């Protein structure tokens, strides 16, 4: 497994859907996980496999802060240790009757898991803490594509006029003006990561958000903060003040299948959460057929196989970032 992704944090579930008492299966990097929340609010992420006879723990239930396997009723406490084998109620279960546990944390409305040893902190997303911005979680959107293709699509402005015509783009304004690309330091020191930032990106949009009443030029910035996480800000030119923020976090299920999560930090006070999810979902569905059609499935990091255009400078910088990080998964 690619150590870069193995030792990083990935979104696996909507934290609000993880209610105390329920077991939630999830998939990450070809691993089957089971998630559950204890009564003190702590989230646990375990291998979805009972050490007894390999049954899925997610078929069981949670009772008194223990996971109870559906097959023979073994009970596991929050440390993963089996405390009761109902067929032998007098015995103390052996130490190796223990579920495999993974690092998990809750942030930005999501549960994040690291399958290996966390090498860096969770990505920084300072706008999420801004009291003037409303947070809305969208997704997950399943996609039959590798993670980097999904991020690259999020960074791509040249497709707005074609795939999102009438909303994010207009064929009469297909030209992509030049923009600035630079290295991005997430300021987390040794535990952070060098990413990429693009600024002064302008696009004409017929309906840049749900509240827009007409077309306008919109200024974007894009930050790629982790191999599979990017954050954009967008501000219509006639608007002043806070920009809307859309962050995209890809959960790699395997090299060619992912789930995309979006966390919005928005200035929109007039739309309901449901309306905002519908709007983002509608836009994402427009990208889906393209994303799933792209060949090769694994994104080529070496030049030569695809023919870039000048508007792809950000995507080129993203591919360079992946190369320099030594990314192996979902790439070729
Ligand atoms: S397989 Fe889980 S208790 Fe037997
Ligand atoms: Fe798109």
Structure characterization notes:
By secondary structure, the protein is of the alpha+beta class. It has two domains: 10-114, Rieske [2Fe-2S] iron-sulphur domain (Rieske Iron-sulfur Protein); 126-325, Naphthalene 1,2-dioxygenase Alpha Subunit, Chain A, domain 1, CATH 3.90.380. The chain has helices at 3-6, 147-154, 160-163, 273-293, 313-325; strands at residues 10-14, 23-28, 31-37, 43-47, 61-63, 66-68, 75-76, 82-84, 101-107, 110-114, 134-143, 180-185, 194-205, 216-226, 229-236, 244-254, 257-266. The longest helix is centred in the C-terminal third of the chain and has 21 residues, at 273-293. Bound molecules: FE2/S2 (inorganic) cluster and fe (ii) ion. FE2/S2 (inorganic) cluster binds next to loops.
Describe, in short, the structure shown:
By secondary structure, the chain is an alpha+beta fold. It is built from 5 helices and 17 strands.
Element-by-element helix/strand order: HEEEEEEEEEEEHHEEEEEEHH
Q: Report how far apart the termini are.
A: 15 Å
- How many beta-strand elements? 17
What is the mean predicted local confidence, pLDDT?
97
The structural domain count equals: 2
What is the CATH topology assignment of the largest domain?
Naphthalene 1,2-dioxygenase Alpha Subunit, Chain A, domain 1
Tell me, what's the shape?
Answer: elongated
CATH superfamily of the largest domain: Naphthalene 1,2-dioxygenase Alpha Subunit, Chain A, domain 1
Give the uncertain stretches in residue-range form. Answer: none
Task: Count helical runs.
Answer: 5
The chain-level structural class is alpha+beta
Helix content: 10-25%
Named at the architecture level, the CATH assignment of the largest domain is: Alpha-Beta Complex
| CA-atom Rg in angstroms | 22 Å
């Amino acid at each position: 497994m690619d150590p870069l992704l193995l030792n990083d944090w990935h979104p696996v579930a909507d934290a609000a859907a993880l209610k105390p008492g329920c077991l939630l299966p999830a998939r990450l990097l070809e691993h089957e996980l089971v998630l559950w929340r204890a009564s003190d609010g702590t989230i646990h992420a375990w291998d979805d496999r009972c050490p007894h006879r390999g049954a899925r723990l997610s078929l069981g239930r949670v009772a008194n802060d223990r996971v109870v396997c559906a097959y023979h009723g073994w009970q596991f406490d929050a440390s993963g240790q089996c405390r009761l084998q109902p067929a032998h109620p007098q015995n103390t279960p052996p130490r190796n009757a223990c579920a495999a546990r993974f690092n998990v944390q809750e942030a930005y409305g999501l549960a994040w898991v690291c399958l290996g040893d966390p090498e860096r902190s969770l990505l920084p997303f300072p706008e999420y803490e801004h009291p003037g911005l409303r947070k809305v979680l969208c997704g997950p959107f399943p996609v039959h594509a590798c993670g980097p293709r999904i991020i690259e699509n999020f960074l791509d402005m040249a497709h707005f006029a074609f795939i999102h015509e009438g909303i994010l783009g207009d064929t009469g304004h297909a030209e992509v003006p030049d923009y600035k690309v630079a290295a991005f330091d997430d300021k987390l020191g040794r535990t952070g990561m060098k990413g990429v930032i693009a600024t002064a990106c302008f696009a004409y949009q017929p309906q840049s958000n749900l509240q827009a009443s007409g077309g306008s030029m919109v200024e974007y910035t894009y930050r790629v903060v982790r191999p599979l996480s990017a954050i954009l800000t967008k501000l219509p030119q006639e608007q002043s003040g806070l920009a809307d923020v859309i962050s995209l976090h890809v959960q790699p299920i395997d090299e060619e299948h992912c789930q995309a999560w979006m966390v919005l930090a928005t200035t929109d006070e007039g739309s309901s959460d449901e309306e905002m999810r519908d709007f983002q979902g509608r836009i994402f569905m427009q990208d889906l057929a393209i994303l799933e059609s792209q060949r090769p499935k694994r994104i080529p990091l070496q030049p030569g196989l695809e023919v870039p255009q000048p508007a792809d400078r950000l995507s080129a910088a993203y591919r360079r970032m992946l190369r320099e990080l030594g990314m192996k998964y979902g790439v070729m």
